[in-house]
Amino acid sequence: MQLACVLQSAMHGVIYKVFVCCLVYAFALLVQPAASQLLGGNDFYASSCPNVESIVRNVARASFSQDATAPAAMCRLAFHDCQVNGCDASILLDSGSDGTAELQAPANLGIRRLDIIDNAKQQVEAQCPGTVSCADILAMVARDAVAFAGGPDIRIPLGRLDGFDTSANLAQSTLPPPSSSADNVLALFGGMGMDPEESVAILGSHTLGVAHCTNFADRLYPVPDPRLTVLMASALQARCPAGAFSNDATANLDTSAVTFDNSYFSNLVNGRGLLDVDANLATDPATASIVLNFANNQDAFFAAFSSAFVKLTSFRVLSGPQGEVRLNCHFSNS
């Protein structure tokens, strides 16, 4: 609508029309509630399922204690759910109206440990039948994953509903590629209400987990990306030999891949960003100073990540007849 304002001015040269058009746009923003306002706050289940937080946290921590890579898997699960049609647990559905599921999209290669969500849902259903959505459980588990790995303990609003549909094509066309530019990152997360600092901070989740060789092989061959250190390029080439690695071959995203800290940003500053998008954040003038600040100040990173995480997990949540509380996270109730 902002573009329409400018075009209208250019076509007619009437300042008054520009004013009215932009006033309507501003009013529309005011009357349209933000996603977080559609949620019920931190105590949403205070009366309907008062123990839900402890139930979910206990299930998550038990799994994280047995599998140090699980926190990264849960963070990625939340990201890949919320970036496709919002935070509606559509990534958990086994099949959609077109006969496909988001998990079948190549961009979701390596999504795993859904059993953690299933286990938490089962235990919540035993105490509070038909009350807590899979989307809320997914968001809580991802939040607990960050805290368990050493990151900030984030309070998030609850009250999400589960979506009815899923699609591999939609996921593939929506999820950003690992080669995204800094401008793409700022635009993507800016669309979720994040400022530039939060947009960079949210990618600090790359301090956990691994990336598949297929996602960064173009930085190694035919010649290494000059933004990689010689040692890192050589190590990655050994890990992912040209034309000889499997789809399952991976490398750590960070030197502390099971600890949530600011080492991701320190690595970026020192030429050790694994993905192209990581290197882009470190070298683009729009984001380089933010990266440097987070590399030097973990508290600043944690603060920005916390606010960004709330916005991410509150993105385009469903309300009323738009969604439901699934009884089984893999199937719609209808």
From TrEMBL:
GO cellular component terms attached to this protein's record: extracellular region
S-S bridge residues: C49-C128, C82-C87, C134-C329, C213-C240
Cofactor requirements of the protein: Ca(2+); heme b
Its EC number(s): 1.11.1.7
GO MF: heme binding; lactoperoxidase activity; metal ion binding
Residues engaged in binding Ca(2+) 1: D81, V84, G86, D88, S90, E102
Binding-site residues for Ca(2+) 2, renumbered to this chain: T207, D254, D261
Site (Transition state stabilizer): R76
Keyword field: Calcium, Disulfide bond, Heme, Hydrogen peroxide, Iron, Metal-binding, Oxidoreductase, Peroxidase, Secreted, Signal
SUPFAM superfamilies: Heme-dependent peroxidases
Family: Belongs to the peroxidase family. Classical plant (class III) peroxidase subfamily.
The protein's role, per its UniProt record: Removal of H(2)O(2), oxidation of toxic reductants, biosynthesis and degradation of lignin, suberization, auxin catabolism, response to environmental stresses such as wounding, pathogen attack and oxidative stress. These functions might be dependent on each isozyme/isoform in each plant tissue.
Name of the protein this chain belongs to: Peroxidase
Protein's organism: Ceratopteris richardii
Taxonomic path: Eukaryota, Viridiplantae, Streptophyta, Embryophyta, Tracheophyta
